[in-house]
Amino acid sequence: MDTLTELTASPLSPALGAEVTGIDLGHEMPGETVAQILDLWRRHLVLVFRDQDLTTEGQRRFARNFGTLRERRRGGTTFAKSNYALWQGDPNIRDDPNLMLVSNVTIDGLPIGSFAEGDMWFHIDSGYSERPYKYTFLHALKLPTEGGNTLFANMYRAYEALPQDLKDRLKGKKALHIHEYKRREKVDLAGDFSKSPHAFHPVFTTHPETGRRSLFVDRLMTARLEGFAPQESTAVLEQLFDHAERPEFIYEHIWRAGDLVMWDNRCVT
């Protein structure tokens, strides 16, 4: 258990994750407190703050303590924002460029938010982008009656536990990350994916703040290893995915209403 001024962090699993208490994220916070949270974040990779009553502006203000907010990529649908406005009973609500509503609620058969289908494979948020998001913040407002848990994988540990011969084989290699929000499975590389967002990233990356090496692939978006024959690429990637998803690298978060969970996409899937 770590104690820094008012903040107390209790580990949630042997792999990663800590619950932080002693703070209301809805209030302005001094730089010293932000520095303490960053220190805990670098050590635990995923931080959980319970019972947080945050407005959208409060969540946005808290996130700005850690950098400039990026505008999220949107799929081009218009029904999501209008149905969300109907659900809230406020026709003036407009889509927010910094926030994504994740919900299985529908109105007249249309979802009010994103990912209404539920389950997704392990993934790096915006890994298909040339500059993937550093961090993600997710605030639970309402929860389903069952299910909905989120698994997080420690990609530092995944890299460190790789066999040396595989590290040597993949040293300096890049992988293609590609994804389209409407898909629930990998893109077919035999087809035309040029209009889908995609980018190449090193298989192994170094975190710029901790200096630690990380495995930077995921089952949902990593489609191909550069310089490998198709069958060989598929076989090696499946080996990496299975390795990274081993139970000893995983924290399973069981959500409660009011949870604010934040994670570092550079070392967590």
Explain this structure to me?
- The protein contains six helices and 15 strands.
- It has about 270 residues and is of the alpha+beta class.
- It has a domain at about 155-245.
- A hairpin with a 2-residue loop joins strand 5 (about 105) and strand 6 (about 110).
- The longest helix has 15 residues, at about 230-245.
- Residues about 75-80 have low confidence and may be disordered.
Largest β sheet strand count, sense and barrel closure: 6 strands, mixed
Question: What would the principal axes of the Cα set say about the shape?
Answer: globular
Q: How many DSSP H or I helices?
A: 6
- What is the subunit organization of this protein? single chain
How many extended strands? 15
Low-pLDDT windows of residues: 76-80
What is the element string, with H for helices and E for strands?
A: EEEHEHHEEEEHHEEEEEHEE
Average pLDDT: 86
Give the strand line-up of the largest sheet.
1-2-3-4-15-7
Q: What separation lies between the terminal Cα atoms?
A: 24 Å
Strand content: 15-25%
Determine the fraction of residues in helical runs and give it as a percent range: 10-25%
Secondary structure category: alpha+beta
Instruction: Give me the Rg, rounded.
Output: 19 Å
